[in-house]
UniProtKB/TrEMBL annotation:
CDD domains: LTA_synthase. The keyword Metal-binding applies. Gene3D superfamilies: 3.30.1120.170, Alkaline Phosphatase, subunit A (3.40.720.10). The chain crosses the membrane at residues 5-23, 29-50, 57-76, 111-129, 141-161. Keywords: Cell membrane, Manganese, Membrane, Metal-binding, Transmembrane, Transmembrane helix. This is LTA synthase family protein. Mn(2+) binds at residues 241, 283, 459-460. The active site is at 283.
């Protein structure tokens, strides 16, 4: 320790052990040294051999950068329940709007990652006051020996695993090194493997093939049961922030949580088994998926990769049919890179924070009531101009941590809900529903109700993560009569109202679906066939489905007609859930064996979707 090389190396070793213990809830000193310290030692040895002066500064800089990355990883994992990639960490500045929720997750012990600064100050004071001496460094031969070994180990680690597919970033990091897996990730992203043949082939042929893989016999899009049933109607799509399906028709002490939606589903097509499929891009990924029916990347927000490209989409195909297209969201337009995303998706115009202002702010932005009122002003203008329109409204108030001001709390909840996440969530959803009720009324008053298809879906779950305490889990368990499961968590409502169609024959449809399926379902009703390959399917036509979710579940997790299957991850063995009763299935001994074929089929679909998206992004 009388030498800075060892001082920093030992500090970094302690931190790496701490990090692995936190991220993986176990630690292994040998793995920490083999996988992580080999890379740190490599960097330090380079400093030792090639730098003459100011080595301490270089050690300190490397130490601080890595410590900040470690802290970032720990906090990120608490919020998103997965280890971030280097790319996610670079985007942490994007977290502006949700930083309140994130700040709640930082613990005082996290600052231990910077405790060595204190120790360093003590050393410096000892040098200044007591004349304590540090040696200049390690000898050149020792440094060269460290360098050779560290380089050898890091190279072995990288080359052995660089061709493996990263199915679960956390599990992969645990097994093959946190820093190593970041390098493998970067390598996999950048190596030119994707074949674009798929993307450039005839779109219809490809879409049929995807349909077949899912177990369907493809039917011509124009021959689907409801094709064009709502032709030339306006389209209003509401993306409801953090709205889960379980609140629909739920009552607490006789009070409905979503009275307006409950009324509305009775005149709509209500898809009860639809699941979120977003990745790291959360809200913005949901916007991307619904408008394109292309899989998001998973560990990277698709919007962050967009800069000037033209993505085939619902706004584009409707635009070609003479629709005017616009999207509305009350947050800052630069959040999630939406100023680039919206033009890439082909929206004619967008309305964001500078349009909605900061009246009646709740949480991140103006309340949903203000949002819908101001959006309505534009919809009425569109209506007056006589051109059919597609408007997407992305709500905001029902966002974590779901704390509603007193005057917006409409529920009288039992005492045990007081101050809990689930209590706050129910109040907040009840408010979101109230605002939706007002929007529905305004649409009726304006005469838009009868000539617009209106669809609504949740972008992702709200009841999850570290804010979810044992008491919440208990309340949810009591509410459902069974434990809160992954099915309960990822199930979002998807409701489609088509005047003259769904109101004549309202249905609750149990077919398994995902956010990918929304675009083809809606486009089919409107009688507009997408002219590009897409990865979802019309839920009013096809009954068999095979859908994936990456990032929030390990790659290889899938939904089919009956189950949600999640392969082994760093924390859990493979799991199975029954979509029908939403509960975990415990009887199957080796679920991997049952779903191997489905996993392979899904990986094939991912490969095609990723190749297509890469092709679009590079154009
Ligand atoms: C931010 C808002 C919320 O603009 O849409 O985003 P989220 O945190 O849910 O991704
Ligand atoms: Mn969201």
């Amino acid at each position: 320790m009388r030498n800075y090389f060892f001082f920093f190396l030992i500090m970094m070793t302690i931190k790496v052990i701490m990090l692995r213990a936190t991220l993986f809830e176990n630690y292994n000193i040998a793995m920490s040294v083999w996988y992580e310290i080999s890379i740190v030692a490599l960097l330090f040895a380079v400093v030792e051999l090639w730098q003459r002066r100011g080595k301490v500064i270089s050690y300190l800089v490397i130490d601080m950068i890595l410590s900040s990355v470690f802290l970032g990883m720990v906090v990120y994992q608490r919020y998103f329940e997965t280890i971030p990639t280097y790319f996610d960490l670079l985007q942490l500045n994007q977290l502006g709007s949700v930083s309140d929720s994130i700040a709640l997750l930082i613990k005082p012990t996290d600052f231990l990652y910077f405790a060595d600064i204190g120790l360093l100050i003590v050393v410096v004071l000892l040098i200044k006051i007591k004349g304590y001496r540090m040696t200049k460094g390690i000898s050149k031969p020792v440094a060269a020996f460290v360098l050779m070994n560290a380089l050898l180990i890091s190279t072995i680690n990288f080359t052995f695993y660089s061709s493996e597919r990263i199915m679960d970033q956390t599990l992969f990091s645990e097994q093959h090194g946190i820093l190593n897996s970041q390098m493998i990730k970067a390598y996999a992203e950048n190596k030119p493997t994707a074949s674009y043949v798929f993307a450039t082939k005839d779109a219809g042929v490809q879409t049929d093939e995807i349909s077949r893989i899912k177990g369907n016999i493809p039917v011509k899009f124009t021959d689907h049961k409801y094709f064009g049933a709502a032709k030339d109607k306006n389209l209003i799509v509401i993306q409801a922030e953090s709205l889960q399906d379980f609140v629909i028709n739920l009552k607490i002490d006789g009070q409905e949580i979503t009275p307006n939606l409950n009324k509305w589903v009775k005149e709509s097509f209500y898809f009860t088994n639809v699941f979120q499929q977003i990745g790291a891009g959360n809200t913005s990924d949901a916007e991307f998926i619904m408008n394109t029916s292309i899989y998001p990347k998973g560990d990277v927000a698709v919007s962050s990769l967009i800069d000037g490209q033209e993505i085939p989409s619902l706004p584009r195909i409707l635009g070609e049919q003479g629709y005017r297209t616009a999207t509305f969201h009350a947050d800052d337009i630069t959040y999630w890179n939406r100023d680039k995303l919206y033009p890439a998706l082909g929206f004619d115009e967008y309305f964001a924070k500078n349009y909605f202002g900061d009246e009646d702010v709740v949480g991140i932005g103006p309340s949903d009531e203000v949002f819908y009122q101001k959006s309505m002003k534009q919809l009425k203008k569109f209506q007056q101009q006589g051109q059919p329109f597609y408007a997407q409204l992305v709500s905001l108030t029902n966002h974590t941590p779901f704390e509603m001001p007193e005057d917006k709390q409409y529920l009288d909840l039992p005492a045990e809900y007081e101050g809990t996440l689930i209590g706050n969530y129910l109040q907040s959803v009840r408010y979101a529903d109230e605002a939706l009720g007002q929007l529905f009324q305004s649409l009726q008053d304006a005469g838009l109700w009868d000539n617009s298809v209106i669809a609504l879906y949740g972008d992702h779950s709200g009841v999850h993560g570290r804010l979810l305490q044992d008491e919440d889990v208990k309340l949810l368990g009591d509410m459902f009569g069974s434990p809160y499961s992954l099915i309960d968590r990822f199930n979002v409502p998807f409701i489609v109202y088509a005047p003259g169609v769904s109101d004549k024959n309202p249905q609750e449809i149990e077919t398994t679906g995902g956010q990918l399926d929304m675009m083809p379902t809606i486009a089919n009703l409107l009688g507009v066939e997408p002219n590009y390959v897409y990865f979802g399917q019309n839920l009013l036509q096809y009954e068999n489905n095979l859908l994936g979710m990456r990032y929030y579940l390990g790659t290889g997790s899938l939904f089919n007609n009956d189950i949600l299957y999640t392969p082994e991850t760093s924390k859990r063995t493979a799991r199975l859930y029954n979509i029908g009763d939403k509960d975990m299935v415990s009887k199957v001994v080796n679920p991997e064996d049952y779903f191997e074929q489905n996993v392979d089929q899904l990986l094939q679909i991912y490969d095609w979707s990723d190749a297509y998206l890469n092709y679009l992004l590079e154009k």
